Structures are given as C-alpha cells and as structure tokens.
Amino acid sequence: MRRLRKTKIVATLGPSSSDAETVEKLHLAGADVFRLNFSHGEASDHKSRYDIIRNLEKKVGRPIGILADLQGPKIRVGRFAAGSIELKKGTKFRLDLKDTDGDINRVSLPHPKVMASLEEGTDLLLDDGKLKLCVSKAGSDYVDCEVIIGGKLSDRKGVNIPNTIVNMSPLTDKDRRDLDYALELGVDWVALSFVQRAEDIAEIKKIVAGRAGVMAKIEKPTAVENLDGIIELSDAIMVARGDLGVEIPLQEVPSIQKLIIGKAKEAGKPVVVATQMLESMITSPVPTRAEVTDVANAIYDGADAVMLSAESAAGDYPIEAVTMMSDIAVETEKDPNYRKIMEAKHGSLEATTADAISAAASQVAHTISASAIVTYTTSGSTALRASRERGDTTVLALTPSIHTARRLALAWGLHCVHTKDAENFAEMVEKACNTCFKEGFARPGDRIVIMAGVPFGTPGSTNILRIAWVGEKPLS
C-alpha cells in the first residue's frame, strides 16, 4: 500500500459508497482518510460505515483515518404560506421570532441568539448568497431589512451573516449528540463547522478530551479574522470553501485559501482543502480542466490533503473521482517546480531540539539521497514536525499507538506503521531498517535516516539523528 504521492486524499462516504466492496476500492484507488458526514444519515449508517472501514483496515494491514464532520448550526428562515415569495430590490422585509407562516412582508427567523446579534447595517445573505438583505432597524424580537438583491425565497432557505460574530455555540444539541456518538465509535478526527473564534475550539476540545483530533472548518470571514488563535488551538484546519465562498466575495477565495494553508503549514498543523474540487464528476466520468487545475493548485500550495464530498458520497463515479485526484497529485508532485515551491515556502523553525532534529533529518536525507526518513513517535508530534518540512524524502512514522497511526494518515508525506516501540538503541535501528525493507521503501545497501528520542517511549523527547544502512538480510 505504498502511495506514489505525499498529498493525502479524504473521501466522503454516502449512498454511493456505503458497501464494503466500494469502500475497499476507494481505499485502493487512493483514499487515505474517510469522512462521515453527520449532516446526513442516521447513527446506524455511520456505525455501518465505521465498521466497514475498520474491517478493511485489518484486511489491508494499514492504518486508515476516519473523520466525523459535524453539521453545526444551520441558520434558516421559516416556512411561507404559499411555499415561496418573490422579493423585489428596494422593498422592506421583516424577519421575526413568530411561529407563523411567512408572506410577502415577513418570515420567521427562529433563532433568538442570531436575532440578538443583528444590528443596523448588518448584511444577511439568503439561499447561498442569491439574495441579500441589509438590516435597517433592529428590535428585540425582529429586524426590518431592505432588499438589496431580490429574487425568489422559499421555505427553509439558509441564512449567512458574513461579518458578524453570532453569540451562539457552534455545537448544537444535535452536534453534541453526534459528537458523543462519534467518540464512542472511535473516530480519529472531529471537524467543527462554522467556527468563529478560538473559544469555539476550546469548547469542543474540553468535550473531546484528547480522544480525537479537532479540525476547525474555516468557512466564515470572522474565522479568517481570528485565524491565528483558531490554528493555535486546533489540531488541523479545513478550508471549507462552500460557505466561505458565500460569505466573502468569490474572487477573494483563492487568496484566503493560500493564506490559511500557509499559516497552518507554518504552525505544523495538517490542512485540508475541500468543496467542489471535482464537482462535475458527480455526474461525469471525467472532470473539467478547471477542476484539475484547482486540485493541482491546492497541492502546489502545500495542502496536506484534498477532499471529495458529493463526488464520492453520492456521485455516479466515486472510484473514478478518487483515482483522478490521486493521479493529479502524483503528476503535480513530479513537477520540478513543485519541489522549488515547497523549498521556497519553508517556514521558520522553533528554537527546540525536536525542530532542529527534524530540519536536519530532511537536509541529511536529501544530501545523501536516503531512501527514507524513519521517525519514532508516540503522540505524533515528531512525525508532524517531519511532515512540516515538506522534504523530498518519504517519512515512515513508526508508532506503538494505533490511534496515533490513524490520526497521522491525514498528514502530508507520512507513511504510518503501527508497531511495538523499540526497547533499546540497537533494536531501534534494526526495526527501522527492517520496516523500510518490508514496506518497500528501501533495498539492502540503501541508507535511511532515523529520528528518535531517548529515553524511549517518552513523548516529545526527539533528540537523536542516526544514519543507518539497510542490511543484506533484513529480519522476517
């Protein structure tokens, strides 16, 4: 199961990809992490898919990551007596808390905390940004708005509030139930939707309590404004371009995507680019040229992973979509300019022994043309430092923790191996050489670079750099 690329692929499971045979084909085609979308489906659906992935993991002998993506607070208008209305530019329209059907003059916005956050001048985007209102007067239980961009508005359409921090938790009651269930299943990552500030991450991390990695979905302008604090508290970041593209001008999305990737990389946090990457492959066996370029650009930016949503969950060609994404990654990483870009975008190092060893390992491996870098890691922090280097040598992350191995499946350039920890220095070298041979990364006579820490098994103690030769007769 050696991949010919360093960028990882996240594939969403759904109606088109819920049986064991299809999930296995997705993994063999290139999916490294599977996403369970809690916006859709019942608990039994997620349990079935989870079990399929874990059974597949045993079959292929490779750690596979599982991401639970929480729905988050969906702000929607209520219903209309006629099912829909036509809003005309320049007219007045009221949003209130009344539990009655709407008409041409008003409709319910059944979210008291949202209503309390609105003030004069606040812009509201409805139905994925197709309509725009501006608050002209704010009361305690209503807001009067002017229609800036009109159009048809029908029942239960979504509302986005771009530049306002809404005083509400990103965890709804449904999310809390889903989170408990996902953690009970044993997922490796939890993605939090509609993050606005660092405090949102602190809230969910208290609940998760280290049982999974927490991924912040950046899809609001307020999250971009508070990006540094969010990245600091998160374990990973997702550039969620769906709602982000509604709440900011579309032409700003590419630059913000690059900003988020750059800052996440600098912090050594895995970053995923998502939404509409190969959208046309929902119904077509081949993507558009623009989509291929979009995926490649995310890879040139240095993203750890690229994600498929409806393409693999509900599309007609889920296997083809994963295969195409993998092929794009392989070809992009072959480009000599890719290496130049990775080297040019190398971030500054922290003044720590672990960072110094990681940087040195990457440089030494390049200089001596080592076949692989092997890092021993318990918590995963050493492996993530090695990934952050974006070097041209594949990194084998050896860990005694299956949970760490699964979580690291998301990170750029890491080939994760679940194995017993070494008990002494000689065993460490022997195990590293043996694993490189078994996994197909080195042949007898090749050199490898080893990163480890003494005392063994102590998290955060990386302090050794060793060059080793793979022997003529590796152990069986």
Summarize the model shown.
37% of the residues lie in helices and 22% in strands. It has helices at residues 20-29, 43-60, 112-117, 173-185, 198-208, 221-225, 227-233, 241-247, 253-267, 289-300, 310-313, 318-334, 336-344, 353-367, 381-388, 402-408, 425-438; strands spanning 8-13, 33-37, 65-69, 84-87, 92-96, 106-108, 123-126, 131-138, 142-149, 151-154, 159-160, 189-192, 213-218, 236-240, 271-274, 305-308, 372-376, 395-399, 414-418, 447-453, 462-469.
Question: In words, what does this structure look like?
Answer:
By secondary structure, the protein is α/β, with parallel strands linked by helices. The chain folds into three domains: 8-72 and 169-334, TIM Barrel (Alpha-Beta Barrel); 84-160, Beta Barrel (M1 Pyruvate Kinase, Domain 3), CATH 2.40.33.10; 353-469, Pyruvate kinase, C-terminal domain (Pyruvate Kinase, Chain: A, domain 1, 3-Layer(aba) Sandwich), CATH 3.40.1380.20. The chain contains 17 helices and 21 strands. It has helices at 20-29, 43-60, 112-117, 173-185, 198-208, 221-225, 227-233, 241-247, 253-267, 289-300, 310-313, 318-334, 336-344, 353-367, 381-388, 402-408, 425-438, and strands spanning 8-13, 33-37, 65-69, 84-87, 92-96, 106-108, 123-126, 131-138, 142-149, 151-154, 159-160, 189-192, 213-218, 236-240, 271-274, 305-308, 372-376, 395-399, 414-418, 447-453, 462-469. The strands form four sheets. It has an eight-stranded parallel barrel, surrounded by nine helices. Helix 1 packs parallel to helix 12 (318-334), helix 5 (198-208) packs parallel to helix 7 and helix 10 (289-300) packs across helix 12. The longest helix has 18 residues, at 43-60. The two termini are 18 Å apart.
